[in-house]
Structure to design on (263 residues):
């Protein structure tokens, strides 16, 4: 599906600037408000999910809880989605070994419906790529179609850490999915001191549809409870930098709300 042609943006550089992990901490929500970019997605099981307000918010479907604190619990009773203390698994490996598709579907459905009670969702995406196990990807795509919410789909699986055994079925699902795919950009793995340079280098990108994911958080004691706080603060300061703002202005901005409307 050539979404850019349908939007009248063929041959342009188009960017969805996406704020991940909203609802996880107050520092995360505060950065969303301070930066002023409209698009992000909310972790509905997060303690601060009800505090997010915005015009282009998706559901950041959550099946893992990787930090010692804050931990998140499922909204449903699926045993395969809980550790011995009742929290989500702390790694993708544990999730993929244990998760039952029917329990994943109940949980994701519950998160979408809870989100609909908090705000009007415009799209779906997934924390840590937890649905990259092919049978879980089928659940994700089916729910996206049922709820009429466009899902984040990467144009390529390269560099996403997908186990080789998953690749053939996932590639087939991507080819057959009736949704547009984006060129996925995520600087999360870069050292914080390289973050500003990453954003400035966006000026070199060719034409296409990109989703740039960031995890910006305010520099507060609460935000610094997360082990990766330096990464999150580096995103925040980089995206507030006037030179980065100038580079971002070279792209045509796009929201998931606009994608949803054209679909």
């Amino acid at each position: 599906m050539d979404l850019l042609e349908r939007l009248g943006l063929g041959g342009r550089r188009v960017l969805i600037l996406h704020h991940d992990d909203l609802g996880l901490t107050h520092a995360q929500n505060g950065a969303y408000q301070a930066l002023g970019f409209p698009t992000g997605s909310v972790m509905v099981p997060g303690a601060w999910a009800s505090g997010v307000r915005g015009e282009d918010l998706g559901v950041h479907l959550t099946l893992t809880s990787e930090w010692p604190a804050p931990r998140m619990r499922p909204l449903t009773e699926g045993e395969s989605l809980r550790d011995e203390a009742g929290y989500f698994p702390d790694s993708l490996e544990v999730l993929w070994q244990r998760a039952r598709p029917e329990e994943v579907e109940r949980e994701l459905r519950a998160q979408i419906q809870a989100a609909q009670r908090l705000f009007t969702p415009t799209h779906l995406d997934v924390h840590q790529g937890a649905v990259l196990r092919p049978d879980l990807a089928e659940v994700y795509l089916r729910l996206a179609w049922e709820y009429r919410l466009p899902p984040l789909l990467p144009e390529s699986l390269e560099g996403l850490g997908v186990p080789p055994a998953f690749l053939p079925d996932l590639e087939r699902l991507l080819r057959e999915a009736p949704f547009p795919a984006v060129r996925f950009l995520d600087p999360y793995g870069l050292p914080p001191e390289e973050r500003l340079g990453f954003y400035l280098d966006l000026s070199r990108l060719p034409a296409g549809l990109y989703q740039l994911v960031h995890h910006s958080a305010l520099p507060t004691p609460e935000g610094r409870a997360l082990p990766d706080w330096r990464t999150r603060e580096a995103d925040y300061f980089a995206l507030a930098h006037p030179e980065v703002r100038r580079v971002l202005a070279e792209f045509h901005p796009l929201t998931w709300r606009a994608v949803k409307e054209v679909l």
Q: What stands out?
A: The radius of gyration is 18 Å.
